[in-house]
Write a structure and sequence with these properties.
- The protein is of the alpha+beta class.
- It has helices at about 45-50, 55-65, and strands at about 1-5, 10-15, 20-25, 30-40, 70-75.
- A hairpin with a 5-residue loop joins strand 1 (about 1-5) and strand 2 (about 10-15).
- The termini are far apart.
- The relative contact order is 0.21.
Length: about 90
């Protein structure tokens, strides 16, 4: 997984053997949260995503909107949790 410059995405990774895109999202304070795997992502899809001017916009316009083409599964659920005040 590689960290990326994005307000909503913390890091991304890609497995070319299985054509799986891994996306870890950011919480409200920029902390890493849930990890999702997206299937059927070609190497060309990944290169376009990784090199996009806006990683978040590209993800929402070209991957997330096409759930039938790129089905996803939540691999790790890490909801935002508040830290208790001392």
């Amino acid at each position: 997984m590689d960290s990326v410059e994005s307000s909503q995405i913390h890091s991304i990774g890609y497995d070319s053997a299985t054509n799986t895109l891994a996306v870890r999202f950011k919480g409200k304070n920029g902390e890493p949260t849930s990890l999702y795997h997206y299937a059927n992502v070609t190497p060309a899809n990944f290169v376009a995503f990784k090199n996009a001017k806006s990683i978040g916009s590209h993800f929402y316009k070209h991957i997330k909107l096409f759930a039938e083409r790129f089905p996803c599964v939540c691999v790790e659920k890490m909801p935002y949790t508040r830290q208790a005040s001392k």
